[in-house]
Amino acid sequence: MAELQEVQITEEKPLLPGQTPEAAKEAELAARILLDQGQTHSVETPYGSVTFTVYGTPKPKRPAIFTYHDVGLNYKSCFQPLFQFGDMQEIIQNFVRVHVDAPGMEEGAPVFPLGYQYPSLDQLADMIPCILQYLNFSTIIGVGVGAGAYILSRYALTHPDTVEGLVLINIDPNAKGWMDWAAHKLTGLTSSIPEMILGHLFSQEELSGNSELIQKYRNIITHAPNLENIELYWNSYNNRRDLNFERGGEITLKCPVMLVVGDQAPHEDAVVECNSKLDPTQTSFLKMADSGGQPQLTQPGKLTEAFKYFLQGMGYMASSCMTRLSRSRTASLTSAASIDGNRSRSRTLSQSSESGTLPSGPPGHTMEVSC
Predict the structure, then answer these.
(1) Measuring CA to CA, how many Å separate 190 from each of 216, 223, 310, 333?
(2) 215 CB contacts (<8 Å, ≥6 apart)?
(3) What is the DSSP string of 156-224?
(4) Which residues, other chains included, contact 134 with Cβ-Cβ below 8 Å and sequence gap of 6+?
(5) What distance separates the 2 farthest-apart alpha carbons in the chain?
(6) Prediction pTM value
(7) Partners of 98 in the β-ladder
(8) How many Å apart are CA 226 and CA 231, to the nearest integer?
(9) Are 246 and 277 in contact (CB under 8 A)?
(10) Which residues, including other chains, have CB under 8 Å from residue 154's CB and lie 6 or more apart?
């Protein structure tokens, strides 16, 4: 009789006691669905509770992508078209994401009681360490729009060691001056809060055109059950302090920054001015044609490609394939001096309707790219 040999069989994913293979598969499927849907958390901070949703799992030695939305929106209405875009999937597979909802902006949020003191934008920025401590995340790449871009910038000024990079869409780093304040008050006499917020989000050309996108967001904001909360966030934005950026000064963003604005967008001048105040060796300026006031909604493909290049410049996703901008026909690199002739301007990426590459060049150059 042949000698019996002992054979050891090790399960790659051991089953729990009493668990059948079918049950294990169902549990694994449920876990994947949960990751796809995101896990929502709330934490208490010195300025109230804040809600955020986490997608994916942390990757070793990689920061989290950390988003903050604009006034009148929440994380879904602000970022979902961008992060659900096909080419973006390569990015989100490589990073865990944290999408923050400003207090009272999350879906199903109750209306704050009368007299509630809504946090200032500075205080909203001071909530971020509580989120990162709760998640045990050490560094982030911030992606913010409008008020969210301001909040992430304020956080980066006070916690520079925890911010590896920033993508700032429609940022206005300046406090409202007396003329802005007076114009805002006069507008408030003739326009409703939803109309003022729509004027903040979209260009007048877009609002006049009344496209399907505009109709959708006008309906979202006008019929929002938490409109009183939205007004509080709106007031905090309009009462923001000046970030006091100064090129070559002490107050500046120390990490790589990509500034983004649409051609003819409401905040085009503010973003151009912000670009002039930041370190040109660390800053890229992306001005997107045909994108209106919300590039992440209207041109998610172009913004995704630019984001991939930005991440590559930071040393991530070196083998990533460029699907749009890489099939280029034209690329030019020109050096432009600043007004005083001694300092170079920051890198400027200008997109049009055709595809083009982003050439690599020395810092302090202006990149003019047809894409």
Answers:
(1) 23, 19, 42, 47
(2) none
(3) HHH-GGGEEEEEEES---SPP-HHHHHHHHHHHHHS-HHHHHHHHHS-HHHHHHT-HHHHHHHHHHHT-
(4) 41, 43
(5) 100
(6) 0.80
(7) 54, 66
(8) 9
(9) yes
(10) 121, 122, 125, 243
* Structural tokens at position 204: 């007048």
Count H helices and E strands in the chain, helices first: 14, 11
Confidence of residue 231 (pLDDT cuts 50, 70, 90): very high
d(CA 137, CA 131) in angstroms, rounded, equals 9
Q: Exposed e or buried b for every residue in 67-80, given b needs 16+ CB within 10 A?
A: bbbbbbbbbbbbbe
DSSP 50: E
**Confidence class for position 198, pLDDT limits 50, 70, 90:** very high
Residue 342, Cβ density class (10 Å: 0-12 exposed, 13-18 middle, ≥19 buried): exposed
Output the six-digit token pair for 247: 């090129």
H-helix or E-strand spanning residue 347: strand 347-351
Location of structure tokens 């911030």: 142
How confident is the model over 160-187, as pLDDT tens digits?
Answer: 999 999 999 999 999 976 555 555 555 6
Other residues' Cβ atoms within 10 Å of the Cβ of residue 144: 26
Q: What is the CA radius of gyration of the chain?
A: 23
Residue 191, both tokens: 């326009």
Report the candidate in 31, 79, 26, 71 with the shortest Cα–Cα distance to residue 53: 79
Inform me whether the pLDDT recorded for 363 exceeds 70.
no
Cα–Cα distance for residue pair 162/160, rounded to 1 Å: 5
Residues contacting 217, CB < 8 A, separation 6+:
72, 77, 198, 201, 202
Order of strands, edge to edge, in the sheet holding 140-145? 39-45, 48-55, 97-101, 64-68, 140-145, 163-169, 257-262, 283-288, 347-351
